[in-house]
Amino acid sequence: MNLNTKTQIKNNHNKAENFFLDIKSGLQNTPKKLSSKYFYDEIGDELFQKIMAMPEYYLTQCELDIFKNKTAEIADLITSDSSPFDLIELGAGDAMKSSYFLKYLVDKGTDFTYMPIDISGNILSILQEKLEKNIPELHTVCLEGEYFEMLNKAAALSSRRKVILFLGGNIGNMELEEAYHFCSGLKQNLAAGDQLLIGFDLKKNPHTILNAYNDKTGITAAFNLNLLTRINRELDADFDLKEFQHYQTYDPVSGACRSYLVSLVDQVVTIDQTSISFKENELIDMEVSQKFSEEDIKELAEKSGFEIKGEIRDSKNWFIDSVWTVTK
Ligand SMILES: C[S@@+](CC[C@H](N)C(=O)[O-])C[C@H]1O[C@@H](n2cnc3c(N)ncnc32)[C@H](O)[C@@H]1O
């Protein structure tokens, strides 16, 4: 395959069926739970872009500070081995931050192919268009699907060394145990010398954290409620959005910031042929946004078999992009 093209590869195998089965089993669980990976339909993508632009959502500005102002430091850490590589971004979204780094590498004449992976085909199309316009020289292969299945596709396309980007709040959207299994799985899929640049939002003043996910404008609430709209549309369900309310918590001890939807009344919702009962005040667990200490980061790297090669912090010291190497 010629990788010197703008390519989009999709894996839509069983997509609708998996969505249905995950939603049904999550809502039959106690407590009820929905996976935040399903937030990202066309409207969800747009709402997430609005979240990133909110002044309260400090994560964007922190990581932008790193990617805009410390680009050379990032490049030094991942291009110390000067061989060509594949830069694979997991959950790339609109690559708002990483595109500064892509431009820097292209301007330096670095030999690499950018492979963004995202479950949302919509955001990948937006990204591809943006990259074609702003960095036309960039070699891009967009991979639409789940992290690991598309990482395998990337490995099948090219045997060059791999640098994985996993930015923003993505690792934080996993429970700690899940994050450990995820990083261990990544290591199994990589070879000695491959690298991972992974973003961690640090524990900080609890008010700052809670405000970032509990905005007064209601954008985060709309982002959560939009998953019910998506389920109504795609799975023939009848959620009444007026009967659900967004609720956000932050526990500064564990570092878990959690989004819930609260059922405001006793109600029964039908999804396809299945009835799901809600008690008044019953919760749906929607998303965790885990915050980390420096010790948590070290422990996660060591436990999952990586060596920390370096780290870059924003000027407020609120966020770390940590660079890990596979030693084998
Ligand atoms: C919170 S956004 C962050 C986007 C980007 N990393 C950033 O920092 O701006 C998460 C992105 O990951 C994608 N995503 C979430 N779960 C995924 C999964 N299991 N496989 C592939 N993509 C996923 C979503 O579609 C979304 O674009």
TrEMBL record:
Pfam families: Methyltransf_33
Any one GO biological process: methylation
Presence of keyword Methyltransferase: yes
Residue ranges of every copy of the Histidine-specific methyltransferase SAM-dependent domain listed in the record: 22-324
Protein name: Methyltransferase
Domain of life from the UniProt record: Bacteria
Keywords: Methyltransferase, Transferase
GO molecular function: methyltransferase activity
Organism: Chryseobacterium piperi
